[in-house]
C-alpha cells in the first residue's frame, strides 16, 4: 500500500497554506471550501450540545433525524426519521454505501475526487462516463445506457450511478429532463442512484428548477447532503444520508448503520445538536443561506466573465462556488509556454501567475485536456473581518463586487489570466 | 451484504434505552461508556473552537498534534507532532490501519467487539488466540508464537497483533513481563503491534506499572488512544494514533492520512480545540481524571466482590470499568434454569433478573462458556445530578460506595446475582 496519496484537493490546500505562511503571494482557488464565518446561532447550538457526551444511536438521535426528515419533506421528498442516518461528514456515508452495495460504480467525468478512490477501496471498478455538453454532475444519459451495457458485455457488474446535483466541479445543475432520462436508464438497468445534493441549497437563482432523482425513482435513490457547503461548516463534519422507504431501502439503511457502527460509531453529539437546529431551517438561518448563495453567485459570475474574456470555454455557473473552464481554444497560444496538458496548465498558473487551481485530471478528466476547477469561494477575504463583511454585504442586498477586498482579488485574477494570454503572445 | 448487524454493544445499548423508555426496570451494565458529566473546561473549549470551521490538515492542526505529542512524551514515548493523526474517534483510525497494512490479524479472545469486524471489512483473516490466565487484552505469548507459525503453515499471512492495554472487556492490565515477551515474538516474527491504550489513564492505582510496547519495540508499534473513556467523551468522538518515528512509521502514517482523506477528511475543528486542551493535561483536568479513576476503581471492586461471592471466577479489575466473570463453577446449578451457554446466560440475566450484560461470544469468546462483560460505569446514577454527585464525591476523596444512589444500584445488582443463585437452587 506504499505510495498512497492524500486526496488531491486536501493535499493542494495544505501545500498552499504552507507556501502562504512562507510569505508567498498566491491566490488560492484550488480548494472547495465555503470560507465564510460560522453563523452565530450555529455556534450557540454547538455550545448547547456539550452535554451530549454519550454515544446514543448509531444513526443519530431522534431529534436530529426528525429535523432532517422535515428538511427533505419540505423538498417534495416525504421522509420518516427512520430513513435518515447522520454521520461525521458525507464522506463516510458515501464510503459505507459503496461498501454495502455490491457491484461496480458508474461515474461521470469530471467528478469530485473522492467517489473513485472510495470505489477502489470497496473493491469496485469505476466505469467513467462523459458529462453532457450543457452541464456537469451527471453522465450523458445515452452514454450511461451504453456504458452499462458495454461494461456488462465485458464481464463487469455496474450497479451504482453517482449524480452530483448541483455539481462540483462544474458549478452547474443538471436540468429536470436530463434527470428523468437518467432515472429511466436506472429503471431499465436496475441501478441504484446515489444523489449527492450537498450543494442543493446554493442555487444562485432559487427559482432554478431542481429535480431530485428521489422524486422520480424514490425506491432506488439514496440522497446525500450535509452542512459543509451550504453553511460553510466543512470543518465541523456533518453529513446526512436519506434512504428509500420500503424493504429495499430499509435493508440498505441497516447495512450502512452496521458499517457505521464498526467504522465511526456515530456523529458527535454536539454536532447532532447543531444539525437538529440547522435542518429545522429557522427563518434567520434561511436568510443567511440566501445571502451566501447570492454572494457565491455574484463572484462566480464575475470570474466566469474573466475566463470567457480570456478566450476559454466555460459553462455559466448556476450553483455553488465552482467553475470548470476549458482552455482548448487557447491550446496553440499556450504551447510556447510549455502548457500542453492539465498538469502543465495547473503548474504554470501556480508558478508563473500565482493562482492555484485544481487540474482536471485530479477529477477524473482527460489529462491531455486544458481544464481545471476554480473554487471562487476562496475570494471572500483573507481576513476573518473581510469574510464577515462579505456576508454582511450580501445580507444587506449590496453588490459584493463593490467591496474593496473582493474587487481587489477579482482584479488580481483578471490580471493573472490577461497576463497568461499576453505571455502566450 | 444483507443481514449486516449493528455492532453488538451499540445494538444492546439502543435496545435497553428503548425498553427503559417503555418503563421497564433494567440495570444496564451492557455498554462500555463512562457515563459521567462533561468536565466544564472541556465544554468551554468546545464553544471556543466554533470558529474552526475550515477543513485544515487531514492529520489535525499543528496545535492539537503538538499537544498529543507532549502527552506521549510525558509517558516515556518521545514523540514529534508529525507522528500524530487525530480523527473522529479511535475506530476510524483502527479501520484505516487495518486497510493500510496488508496481511491477517492476530487477536486475543475475548476482545473488544470491533477489531474483528474491521479486519473482515479489510479482507483480513482473524487468527484468534487465548489470553493468559492472569490478564486479558493480550494473547498468551506462547500461543502468539504458535499461532503465527500455525497460520503461516496453513498459508495465512499474519502481520498485525492488537493489544488492549488496559483491557476491555476484562478490566485488567497485562504486566510488563508479558508485554516484553509479546514484543520479542513481534520482533522474531516481524509483526506490527497496534497497542490500543484508550484506557491507559484509568488505572485504579496510578502506581501500577504500565509498559507500552512502543517503549520496547518503538519502530513496530502504533499506539491508539482517545478521550472517549478517560474523559467520558464517547459521544464527542475524539481519537488519536501515534505512528513510529522513522521511514516505516512515516510511510504507514502517510497511508493512513491518505485513507483518512478519502473516508472522513479530518476531526471536526471544535473537537480539535478540545483535544489540544485535553492532551496538554492541565492540573485541573488531571485532578478530575484521577477522581474518575478512583470512582471506577471503587465501584468495579464492589461488583467484583459480589460476583466472587456468587461463586463466579473473575480476575480482579485494575483499570477502566469492566469485569469479565466466568460462571463455569456454577454450570451445574444454572442448567435447570436453561442457562447453558453465553447466549442463554445473557438472556436469563436480562429477562429474569433485570440486568443487561454483554455475552462473551460478542467479544469473540467461546459461546459455550458462561462468560460475559459487565460495564460498571453505568452505575454512577440514572440522573445527571446523581452522576455529578458521584464525581464530586470522588473529587472530595469520599467513598463513592456510601452515596445512596450507588449503594442502591449495588444492592440491586447483589440481589440479582444472589437471586440467580437462589433460583438455581
From TrEMBL, chains A, B:
It is an enzyme of class 2 (transferase). Its cofactor is pyridoxal 5'-phosphate. InterPro entries: Aminotransferase_I/II_large, AspAT/PAT-like, NHTrfase_class1_PyrdxlP-BS, PyrdxlP-dep_Trfase, PyrdxlP-dep_Trfase_major, PyrdxlP-dep_Trfase_small. GO terms for molecular function: transaminase activity. The keyword Cytoplasm does not apply. It holds the Pfam family Aminotran_1_2. Its EC number is 2.6.1.-. Keywords: Aminotransferase, Pyridoxal phosphate, Transferase. Residues 43-375 form the Aminotransferase class I/classII large domain. The keyword Transferase applies. Belongs to the class-I pyridoxal-phosphate-dependent aminotransferase family. This is Aminotransferase. It comes from Streptomyces lienomycini.
Amino acid at each position: 500500500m506504499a505510495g498512497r496519496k492524500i486526496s488531491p484537493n486536501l493535499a493542494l490546500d495544505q501545500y498552499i497554506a504552507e507556501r502562504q505562511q512562507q510569505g508567498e503571494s498566491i491566490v488560492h482557488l484550488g480548494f472547495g471550501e465555503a470560507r465564510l464565518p460560522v453563523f452565530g446561532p450555529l455556534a450557540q447550538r454547538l455550545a448547547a450540545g456539550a452535554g451530549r457526551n454519550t454515544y446514543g444511536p448509531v444513526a443519530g438521535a431522534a431529534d436530529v433525524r426528525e429535523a432532517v426528515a422535515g428538511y427533505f419533506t419540505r423538498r417534495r421528498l416525504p421522509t420518516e426519521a427512520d430513513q435518515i442516518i447522520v454521520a461525521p461528514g458525507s464522506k463516510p456515508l458515501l464510503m459505507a454505501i459503496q461498501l454495502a452495495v455490491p457491484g461496480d460504480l458508474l461515474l461521470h467525468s469530471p467528478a469530485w475526487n473522492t467517489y473513485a478512490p472510495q470505489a477502489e477501496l470497496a473493491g469496485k471498478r469505476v466505469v467513467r462516463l462523459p458529462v453532457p455538453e450543457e452541464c456537469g454532475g451527471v453522465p450523458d444519459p445515452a452514454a450511461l445506457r451504453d456504458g452499462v451495457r458495454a461494461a456488462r458485455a465485458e464481464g463487469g457488474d455496474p450497479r451504482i450511478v453517482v449524480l452530483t446535483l448541483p455539481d462540483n466541479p462544474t458549478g452547474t445543475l443538471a436540468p429536470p429532463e436530463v434527470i428523468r432520462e437518467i432515472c429511466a436508464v436506472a429503471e431499465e438497468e436496475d441501478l441504484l442512484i446515489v444523489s449527492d445534493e450537498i450543494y442543493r441549497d446554493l442555487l444562485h437563482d432559487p427559482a432554478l428548477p431542481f429535480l431530485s432523482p428521489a422524486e422520480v425513482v424514490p425506491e432506488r435513490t439514496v440522497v446525500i447532503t450535509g452542512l459543509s457547503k451550504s453553511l460553510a461548516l466543512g470543518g465541523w463534519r456533518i453529513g446526512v444520508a436519506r434512504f428509500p422507504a420500503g424493504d429495499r431501502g430499509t435493508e440498505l439503511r441497516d447495512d450502512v448503520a452496521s458499517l457505521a457502527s464498526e467504522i465511526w460509531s456515530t456523529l458527535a453529539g454536539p454536532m447532532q445538536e447543531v444539525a437538529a437546529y440547522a435542518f429545522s431551517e429557522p427563518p434567520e438561518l434561511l436568510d443567511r443561506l440566501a445571502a451566501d448563495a447570492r454572494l457565491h453567485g455574484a463572484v462566480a459570475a464575475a470570474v466566469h466573465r474573466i475566463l470567457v474574456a480570456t478566450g476559454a470555454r466555460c459553462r455559466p455557473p448556476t450553483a455553488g462556488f465552482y467553475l470548470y473552464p476549458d482552455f482548448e481554444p487557447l491550446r496553440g497560444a499556450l504551447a510556447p509556454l510549455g502548457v500542453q496538458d492539465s498538469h502543465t496548465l495547473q503548474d504554470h498558473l501556480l508558478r508563473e501567475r500565482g493562482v492555484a487551481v485544481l487540474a482536471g485530471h485530479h477529477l477524473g478528466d482527460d489529462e491531455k485536456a486544458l481544464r481545471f476547477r476554480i473554487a471562487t469561494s476562496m475570494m471572500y477575504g483573507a481576513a476573518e473581518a473581510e469574510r464577515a463583511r462579505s456576508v454582511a454585504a450580501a445580507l444587506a442586498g449590496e453588490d459584493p463586487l463593490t467591496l474593496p477586498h473582493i474587487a481587489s482579488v477579482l482584479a488580481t485574477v483578471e490580471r493573472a489570466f490577461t497576463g497568461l494570454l499576453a505571455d502566450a503572445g
